[in-house]
Amino acid sequence: MEQDPEVPARVREVIAAAGVTQREFARRIVMDPSKLSRSLGGTRRFTAAELARIADTADVDAAWLLGTRGAGDPAPPRP
Prior knowledge:
Layout lengths: L6 H12 L3 H7 L4 H9 L6 H11 L3 H5 L13
C-alpha cells in the first residue's frame, strides 16, 4: 500500500506544534534522526510503528496522521 504523500506534511505539522527540533522529536519517538529526515523528505516511508509512536507522542489521532479521516472531520495537532 502506497503512503499518502500528505503524511510527511502532517508529521511536519506535528513537529512544529510540539515546538521542538526535528532531532529532539526523533529522540522522543525513538527514531534515528536521519530516518526521520528521509521519511519527511519522501525518500523513505514511515513504518506503522513509527506512525503509531508519532501519534501517541504528539497526542494526535492516528487516522488523521494517515489521512484516513473524512474531509469534514479533520483532527489537527493539539497545542
